[in-house]
Amino acid sequence: MMKLLVIGGGGREHALTWKLAQSDRVSKIFCTPGNAGTGQLAENIAVAPTELDRLVDLARQQHIDLTVVGPEAPLAIGIVDRFQAEGLRIFGPTAQAARIEADKAYAKQLMREQAVPTAEARIFTEYQAARAYVASRDQAVVIKAAGLAEGKGVIVCDDPADGLLALERVMKDRAFGDAGNTVVVEEKLTGQELSILAFVDGRSLYVLEASQDHKPIGEGDTGPNTGGMGAYTPVPIVTDAVMAQIEREILVPVVDGLTRRDVLYRGVLYAGLMLTMAGPKVLEFNCRFGDPEAQPILMRVRGNLVEVIEHALAGTLDQVELDYDPRPAVCVVMASGGYPGKYEKGKVIEGLDRVAELSDVVAFHAGTARRDRQVVTNGGRVLGVTALGTDLADAQKRAYEAVDMIRFEGAYCRRDIAAKALAGSSPAPSRSA
Ligand code: AMP
Ligand code: GLY
């Protein structure tokens, strides 16, 4: 029997803990720092994901057999390198491999070398040069802080004049600190966004089913970007042919490119894509599971996640064949009022007990904490209410029915999660009339 440690405390980590706890090989899970949801399945310990010394001590003292890392921050500062040096088993990419997310300029160069389709981009470290370039553009631009900025360091400027303001915010006002020392200026792509997650063992890939996130805070994809307001899987527009193209033109060349640079990528590789008229193009890579994408995906995975991770660690992913629940899953994020800006914490959450009685629905916790006998809000994204349904419309309906049973002051959710897929699935207008 195995003892596991799950690093992180968001919705993704609750979903990972929930899935890992189903394995008959797991006897105990620790979660650092976890949330009220993981606390029902695991022992939460108040250690932050970047306190590497304390995490190493914990893994030693508790004789942890396997550590699974949720968020990017500890990966980027080398938690995997550290654990490996101590002889502790851990799943995730090394700091060098995590640069694919932590340094967007590096990712761009890698894609260029490997001829991976992505937005046209220029990279700048000097404000004046960047300014001159943006001023010369007459089309929409996207300004990206190259470093880690919790998904908020990307500013899409439909009006090229706004590009200059965005650049000033990132490079002069240093809105994202050192993350904005280097800036990527990109052409704006249009199309539907997709998240493609794959297990990687250094050589082989095992690609999970496609999902779609909803990044902006407002319905109809309006307003500032968030960490993600909801997701669903599978995505009807991703046919087998599109998936094969993504694997052939994007995932495989990137892993090969890393290998050529002597970087062994072991962990989950997440490609954020735009499905453009000219085919799928990369917006970004992440070095971990998506949040909230992990919630609906893990709801559908039927196999043993511990075994998949062990194959990835052993370099035997080619032996993995995962079974999925054929029913689609929809995850609706309930957020604190004000998110992604300022918000209050400590609001009592009601109705979770009623949702717990529903079948094929899980309210994954994100920013929650236990206070006496109550569960209270403790972050921007509070819950990821996830439901399976006979089809996507049914999954959406069941997710929102559950959302409507839950109450806390200031609760906000988008009401259009999965709407794009449902609009797309209506019969095409007849051409013959
Ligand atoms: P990223 O963190 O690079 O994925 O960017 C966050 C979000 O900004 C993406 O999910 C897209 O919604 C948007 N975005 C990023 N790059 C582009 C681009 N080149 N064109 C259009 N939208 C983009
Ligand atoms: N949902 C977007 C992310 O995990 O980065």
Can you walk through the features of this model?
With about 425 residues, the chain is an alpha+beta fold. Helix content is about 30%, strand content about 25%. It contains 14 helices and 22 strands. It has helices spanning about 10-20, 50-60, 70-75, 80-85, 95-100, 105-115, 125-135, 160-170, 240-260, 295-300, 305-315, 350-355, 390-405, 420-425; strands at about 1-10, 25-35, 45, 65-70, 90, 120-125, 140-145, 155, 185, 190-200, 205, 210-215, 215-220, 220-225, 230-235, 265-275, 280-285, 330-335, 360-365, 370, 375, 380-390. It has a 5-stranded parallel β-sheet with strand order 3-2-1-4-5. A 5-stranded antiparallel β-sheet has the order 12-15-18-22-19. Helix 1 runs parallel beside helix 10 (about 295-300) and helix 5 (about 95-100) crosses helix 6. The longest helix has 21 residues, at about 240-260. The protein starts with a strand and ends in a 9-residue tail after the last helix. The structure holds adenosine monophosphate and glycine. Glycine (GLY) binds near residues 151, 227 and 293. Adenosine monophosphate binds next to strand 7, strand 8 and strand 17.
What secondary-structure arrangement, pairings included, does this model have?
Elements: E1 2-8, H1 11-21, E2 26-33, E3 43-44, H2 52-61, E4 66-69, H3 72-76, H4 79-85, E5 90-91, H5 95-102, H6 104-113, E6 121-124, H7 127-135, E7 141-145, E8 154-157, H8 160-172, E9 183-187, E10 192-201, E11 205-207, E12 212-213, E13 216-218, E14 222-225, E15 230-233, H9 240-260, E16 266-276, E17 279-286, H10 294-300, H11 305-314, E18 329-335, H12 352-356, E19 361-365, E20 368-371, E21 374-377, E22 381-388, H13 392-403, H14 419-424
Helix pairs in contact: 1-10, 5-6, 7-8
